[in-house]
Amino acid sequence: AAAREAVRIARAAGLHRLEASTLVGNGGSEEVLTRAGFDPIGIAPAYLRIDGAWSDHTLWQRVVDGAR
């Protein structure tokens, strides 16, 4: 619900796209973003430091202005 609400707010604000990231292999978060219409666009190595270790993340986007 939160991801879909973010899309609604972005569209109302006239934004072109939304971007998100998930830990690689985080199936729950990947499912939420997929259901909200996000597409994976790549892997960012060592994207965030979590619990003292650099973690790879999958990057996601959702074009919200109808350009796609």
Automatic annotation (TrEMBL):
| Keyword entries, A-Z | Transferase
Annotated InterPro entries? Acyl_CoA_acyltransferase
Source domain of life:
Bacteria
Output this protein's name.
Answer: GNAT family N-acetyltransferase
Q: What Gene Ontology molecular function terms does this protein carry?
A: transferase activity
